[in-house]
Amino acid sequence: MQGEEERNEGGISVEDPTKTYLRLILDILSDSHNETIDPTKPILRISLRYVYPLFIFVYSLVCLVGTTGNVLILYTIMKKRLRDPTYLLLGNMAVSDITKCVAVLPISLANLLIKNWIYGSFMCFFLPMLQYFPVHVSMLTYLTIAIERYRLILHPIKSRVPAGLCIIGIWVLAVCLVLPYAIYVKYIDLGFFLGSDFDGVGLCLVNVERNIEEYTRAMFVCLYAVPLAIIAFLYVKVSAEIKVREGPATSVSRVTWSTNVSEGDHRASEDHGSASHPHVQHSLRSDDDDFDSNQERRTQKYLITMVTLFAACWCPLNILTLVTHFVFETDNNAGYFDVTFILFSWIGFLSTCINPFLFASWMMSSESKNRLRGYFRFSNRRRSLPQSRHSDAFSRNGHHRS
What are the pLDDT digits (tens) for 330-371? Predict the structure, then answer.
């Protein structure tokens, strides 16, 4: 992620640009162990020279599984014509994950593996925005889903949230949130300072004249910690309400009950018992008809699992980005920084592969799940089959002798 550019030049002063550029170039050349190196070509980080095939493989696997799975989510939503706002927002989540796999993951991997910057000035400013943009979209979508669920369960009389307008608002807000990142990035064209041999080569660094630590902390609090706290609060309230409404009297029914009693039905309740009053019983049944506690509890379980795993996947990289502002990279720990960043980035992108499996389990019927479990237990059933046949034969023989 963009923390890669942050940590590369985080402790370098820009007071003497010529010495800074020369020292960076010498560092690139010395780290390559190649006398005929071309600075206009990609230079692999020496700390990753033995493990980079493994990272290319696991990143490619995440890209393939995440893209295929999220495309299938969109296909399922469109094929079944699921118009419920929750499903439409999950479709928006799938679009965000496809963006991560197709656009963000390959560029981020190249940036983490290659030491020199050869992508030009535009990508220097655009890459951090591209990296964080779909992550913000995912978090804002989870927050919108939690709000929509809260309104649906605790305030069923209110209309559902307009999913289309919410999705447009999420993407516009995410764009606005990442635009300030360009202020904290600085691109230096080495060809301008060092001659034509360095045309196309540049340095993409954090502008040390700006205090990026404050912006990073603000983004962590506003787009990670606070949304997760709000989501947790809303889901706790929703889960509690679902548990209450599983009883004989729902929350809406209790409101109707109180209204009926206040209008004079209490006198009939005193004479014949409140449970025997036909008007009250009709109110209870009509309010409970549209509420399926099993379905709502199942939906709640999958949504909580999705947001929990998403937060767990992106937590290591978020924490590491904050830590890099206090622990600077040196020659002694550069290798650890490289491996840690590329590993934590992979864990973050791993979240794109989780939702397709959870969504498939959510949509799958009980019969299909039992059939699938049977496939995995096939070998166990084959071992137990001879024993069961022996038991049946023994019982038949015993019955014949008797």
Answer: 556 667 878 888 999 999 999 999 999 999 888 877 777 677
Identify whether 385 is part of a domain.
no
The residue segments making up the domain with residue 173 are 3-231+302-370
In a domain, 18, yes or no: yes
pLDDT at 135 > cutoff 60: yes
Highest mean pLDDT among 28-37, 112-121, 313-322, 332-341: 313-322
Total tally of structural domains belonging to the chain: 1
- Is residue 210 included in any domain, yes or no? yes
Question: Span 84-99, mean pLDDT?
Answer: 93
Please report the pLDDT score of residue 330 as a whole number: 59
User: CATH number for the domain including 37?
Assistant: 1.20.1070.10
Q: Which residues contact 1 (CB under 8 A, 6 or more apart)?
A: 108, 128, 131, 132, 317, 321, 341, 345, 348
| Structure tokens, 95 | 């679009």
Tell me if 127 sits within 8 A of 2, measured CB to CB.
yes
**Nearest alpha carbon to residue 94 among 79, 68, 64, 74:** 74
User: What is each CA distance from 206 to 182, 209, 241, 333, in whole angstroms?
Assistant: 10, 9, 48, 20
**Is 270 contained in some domain?**
no
Dihedrals φ, ψ of 33, to 5°? 55, 40
Residue 90: both structure tokens together = 């999950």
Residue 40 and residue 200: Cα distance in Å, rounded? 6
Model confidence band, residue 54 (pLDDT cutoffs 50, 70, 90): very high
